[in-house]
């Protein structure tokens, strides 16, 4: 058994999710027990700095280095704090903080390499130095180097922990960005049939809208209550669904570069002609998240899932969950909590598993999900 810390901060930049887990077994046949969990908010000034960089603000190289260090220090502190009661971690898997993500561009030309690029700050060597614990970080780079999107990286973990012998499942994470893992029955050549990609906006647009509509007093719509009090503007949803990203077949990945500050500004502008109040606008944005997920399922899945398991912060948005259930009809919509995997910390748990696999010599990516040319070991290892 190995005690591992998984560290994750997503596109919502809410804070650092830390999961302390015990892992045993090999490759897909592993057991994971969640020992401790906690979310450590970023200091407000650091969060604002990260968000401004994600929005495209130019910074100098000294400022860049300072930001990288500040994030690493915050991640290291999270790793130390999660062990206050339960000690003994010998490994950290740190996703870091994504500040830029560019998927592979188009078709490769004769003299050009059109690989993707993804940048996560919070460098592993500093986390190792501050904690004294071997750290695996920079997980996306190896998949990108062999032609993959570098995202999503959780499908292989989902396959190991949530596959079922008789049930077709979709694991739908709703963080800032939504991503899906389609898992067929665990029989035959099932692993090669898994699919995964980013479905589009999760909470990113909703959180930005709530912050603006509340004059900065709120950062998210708790339980979706504000949106639930409004009316959906279907013509606007239909217009937004024509975005090229939704139409593009997988493999595909995205981030705040596409569904961030510029896009929410566009959404506000396009909503003006419909004279929506704040609740109506949020109801319509929520419907975009729900409808875009279902659109991806109907157009790109091999089969309709029998069950959808939600995770991530959006899984706690009761209104969003209700809209997904309504749109999916007979498909059961629940959360990973009901199947033994904490919905709030699943992503942090996943990077603990990916670090464990890196040390174990097992590949972490699924080419059928990321589009990579081959399976590879994920992450750079920094020994204590």
TrEMBL record:
Pathway: Amino-sugar metabolism; 1,6-anhydro-N-acetylmuramate degradation; Cell wall biogenesis; peptidoglycan recycling
GO biological process: 1,6-anhydro-N-acetyl-beta-muramic acid catabolic process; amino sugar metabolic process; peptidoglycan turnover
Keyword list, A-Z: ATP-binding, Carbohydrate metabolism, Kinase, Nucleotide-binding, Transferase
PANTHER family tied to this protein: ANHYDRO-N-ACETYLMURAMIC ACID KINASE
CDD domains: ASKHA_NBD_ANMK (cd24050)
Annotated family: Belongs to the anhydro-N-acetylmuramic acid kinase family.
Protein name, UniProt field: Anhydro-N-acetylmuramic acid kinase
GN (gene name): anmK
């Amino acid at each position: 058994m190995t005690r591992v810390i998984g560290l994750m901060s997503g596109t919502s930049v809410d804070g650092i999710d830390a999961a302390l887990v015990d892992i045993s077994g090999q490759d897909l046949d592993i057991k994971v027990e969640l020992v401790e969990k906690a979310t450590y908010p970023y200091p407000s000034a650091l969060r604002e700095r990260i968000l401004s960089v994600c929005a495209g603000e130019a910074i100098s190289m000294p400022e860049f280095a300072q930001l990288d260090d500040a994030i690493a220090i915050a991640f290291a502190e999270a790793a130390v704090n999660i062990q206050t009661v339960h000690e003994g971690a010998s490994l950290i898997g740190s996703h870091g903080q994504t500040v830029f993500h560019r998927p592979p561009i188009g078709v490769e030309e004769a003299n050009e390499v059109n690989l993707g690029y993804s940048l996560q700050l919070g460098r592993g060597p500093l986390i190792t130095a501050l904690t004294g614990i071997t750290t695996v970080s920079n997980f996306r780079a190896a998949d990108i180097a062999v032609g993959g999107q570098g995202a999503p990286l959780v499908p292989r973990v989902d396959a190991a922990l949530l596959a079922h012998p008789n049930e077709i499942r979709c694991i739908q994470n709703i963080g800032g960005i939504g991503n899906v893992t389609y898992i067929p029955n665990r029989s035959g050549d099932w692993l090669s049939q898994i699919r995964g990609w980013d479905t589009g906006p999760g909470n990113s647009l909703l959180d930005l809208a709530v912050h603006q509509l509340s004059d900065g007093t709120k950062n998210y719509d708790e339980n979706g209550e504000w949106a639930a009090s409004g009316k959906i503007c279907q013509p606007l949803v239909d217009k937004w669904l024509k975005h090229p990203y939704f139409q593009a077949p997988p493999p595909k990945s995205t981030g705040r570069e596409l569904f961030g500050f510029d896009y929410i500004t566009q959404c506000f502008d396009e909503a003006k002609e419909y004279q929506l109040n704040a609740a109506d606008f949020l109801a319509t944005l929520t419907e975009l998240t729900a409808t875009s997920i279902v659109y991806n399922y109907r157009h790109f899945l091999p089969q309709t899932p029998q069950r959808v398991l939600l995770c991530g912060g959006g899984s706690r948005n009761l209104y969003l969950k209700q809209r997904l259930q309504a749109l999916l009809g007979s498909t059961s919509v629940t959360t990973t909590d009901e199947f033994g995997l904490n919905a709030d910390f699943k992503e942090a748990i996943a990077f603990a598993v990916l670090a464990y696999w890196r040390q174990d010599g097992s590949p972490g990516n699924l080419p059928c999900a990321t589009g990579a040319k081959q399976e590879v070991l994920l992450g750079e290892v920094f020994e204590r």
